[in-house]
Amino acid sequence: MATLGxxxxxxxxxxxxxxxxxxxxxVVLSNSRGPETLAATVAELGERAxxxxxxxxxxxxxxxxVSIPLAAYEQLPVAALAGKVVLDTINYYPYRDGRVEALDTxxxxxxxxxxxxxxxxxxxxxxxxxxxFHIPSLARPAGAADRTALPxxxxxxxxxxxxxxxxxxxxxxxxxxGPLTESWRxxxxxDPYAMPYSAExxxxxxxxxxxxxxxxxxxxxxxxxxxxxxxxxxxxxxRTLLADTPxxxxxxxxxx
Length: 256
Known about the structure:
By secondary structure, the chain is of the alpha/beta class. The protein has a single domain, classed as Rossmann fold. Helices cover about 35% and strands about 15% of the residues. The protein has eleven helices and eight strands. It has helices at about 10-20, 40-45, 55-60, 80, 95, 100-105, 110-115, 135-140, 155-170, 200-215, 235-245, and strands at about 5, 25-30, 50, 65, 85-90, 120-125, 150-155, 175. An eight-stranded mixed beta sheet has the order 3-2-1-4-5-6-7-8, with helices on both faces. Helix 9 links the parallel strand 7 and strand 8 (about 175). The longest helix is centred in the last third of the chain and has 16 residues, at about 200-215.
């Protein structure tokens, strides 16, 4: 039986876990606060779900989704993730994670930094450019006319293909953007990031700007007054966005 492990079980991880369970995949959830804090989520997901420590989730998964703040990436269990296909959803938000010179200057991408730490793993960047609430609303069965595409990037072609197969089971097409050096093409503030999936992009920009400012000022961001259900993004359109987006250094980002 296939198993998908999760290190980090926030909104992104939990929404992916729901899709996995619906696809007949067992899930093992973990977070930094302990398995007992995930009891309600496990109960909601049902018999295919259980909670564990990050190391246990890493060892249990045929694939492992990593969805944690960048500031915590050095806490990822290196030995337990060795040899695993790791789906990296991590984004760099300087106001949350602190400044990282290699990322500010464009010397490295976020995923290259994480891959350097997880030297024995096979990292594939995925699920970082779509809002968490669009994950369940835009998932579609294989062959659906309105299926949405997500970008991926990775240095191991077989791992990228394996990740693409998993993502297809979860309800999305994929477009391979190339190696991790090219993963900047769908990091925050690029053309493929978040907005192409939104039915109300102007409202979304305003919400994210307000959320970023709230976090910078040390207050809790407000939840959006309503969540749009999103619009499908075709693979052809995503390829164009990936090819045409200019690189914007993270040091220059005004909105994360």
